[in-house]
Amino acid sequence: MPVKSKHNRQFKYFINYFLGPLLFIWLSYSIFKQIRQQPGLEQSWQHIRDSFYSSRIWLLLAVMLLMLVNWSIETLKWKLAVQRIQRVDFITALKAVLSGVSFSVMTPNRVGEYLGRVLYMEEGKRLKAISLTIAGSISQLIVTLAMGFVALLILQKPILDNGMITAFWMKMMIYGVLVVVAILTLFYFRLAWLVRWVDRLPGSRRYAWLLESLEHFNATLLLQLLSLSTLRFIVFIIQYYLLFRLFDVDVSWWQGWWAVSLSFLVMAVIPTIALITDLGLRGKVNLQLLGMFSSNQLGISLTAVSIWFINLIIPAIAGSLLILSIRKIFKNKSG
Q1: What's the distance, Cα to Cα, between the start and end of the chain in Å?
Q2: What secondary structure does DSSP assign to 164-214, as a single string?
Q3: For 259-309, what is each residue's pLDDT tens digit?
Q4: Beta carbons of 85 and 117 less than 8 angstroms apart
Q5: pLDDT tens for each residue of 64-113
Q6: Domain of 227?
Q7: pTM as predicted
Q8: Residue 115 in contact with residue 103, Cβ under 8 Å?
Q9: With the C-alpha atoms ordered 30, 149, 147, 317, is the resulting torsion angle positive or negative?
Q10: How many domains does the chain divide into?
Q11: How far apart are CA 258 and CA 240, in angstroms?
C-alpha cells in the first residue's frame, strides 16, 4: 500500500472516529449546560410533552409532509439539471436523490451526495452528471448566502447588543458574504464562459469533457433551478416555524425567518466533518441565534433535533434501502 494512501486512510479514521465524536460530545455538553440553566425548565418540558397529546400534533404531521415536498423539489431540480445528458423520470430521480442523502450523511459537508445520485445514471454519463449536480447545489448555496446576507443586515443590532460578535467582525462578515454572493452569482450565470476559461488552462483538455454539458445551461434553466432552490428554502423556514409552535418557542414569524436564515448561512460556511457533528453544531447555532428572542432553550434544541431527524435521517434510511436494491441490480447485470 502506498505511504500517501495509508496516511490518507489514517487521517480519515481520525476525523470520523475520533475528532468527529469528540466535537459532538463537546457541543452536546455545551447545549446541555445551557438548557439546564433555563428558568422554568420542568414546566417547559411538561408543556412540550402535553403538546404531543393535544390537537397541535398536526404541526408535526405537517412538518413530515413538508419533508416530502422538500425532497420532491430537490428531485425536480436534479431532473432538470441532468436532462441534457439523460432524461430520467421523477421516480428514478427521487431514488437518486434519496440515495445521495444516504451517501452524504457520513462525509464532510455531505459531499458524498454526488456519488449516490450518479449511480442512477447510465454508464459513461456518471462523471458528467457530477458537474451538473454541482450546478444545482450552487443555486441552493446562492439562495442560502443571499438570505443569510439579508439576515445579517436585519439582525445586526440584536447580535451586537448580545455581544455575539464585535462591530468590526460584523462588518467583515457582511462585506465578505456580499462579495461571495456576487462572485458566485456571476459564475452561476456565466457557466459557459467558465467552461471555456477552464478549457484554456494548461493540462485541462483531458478533463474538459466533464464540464462541456454545462455549456448547455441557458438563462431560463438557471433561473428555474434558482426558483426551485428559493421555494425549497421557504419550505425549510415553514418547517422550523411549525416546530416552534409545537415546542412553544415564542418567536414571531419575522424573527424566526431571519434567525433561521442566518443559522443556514453559518452552517453553510462552517465545515462539518461528520453527521453527528452537524447535529451538535446545528443545535448550538440555533440556541445562540434564536436565544435572542426566546428563552425556551429546550424547545429550540428539540426543534433543531427534529429538523435534523425528519429532513436528513428519515430520507437517509430510505436511501440506504434503495442503495441495497440497486446493488443487487448491478450484481445481477455483472453476473
Answers
A1: 29
A2: SS-HHHHHHHHHHHHHHHHHHHHHHTTHHHHHHHHHTSTT-GGGGGGTGGG
A3: 999 999 998 887 665 555 667 778 888 888 998 999 888 889 889 888 888
A4: no
A5: 999 999 999 999 999 998 887 788 899 989 998 988 887 777 666 666 67
A6: 3-334
A7: 0.81
A8: yes
A9: negative
A10: 1
A11: 11
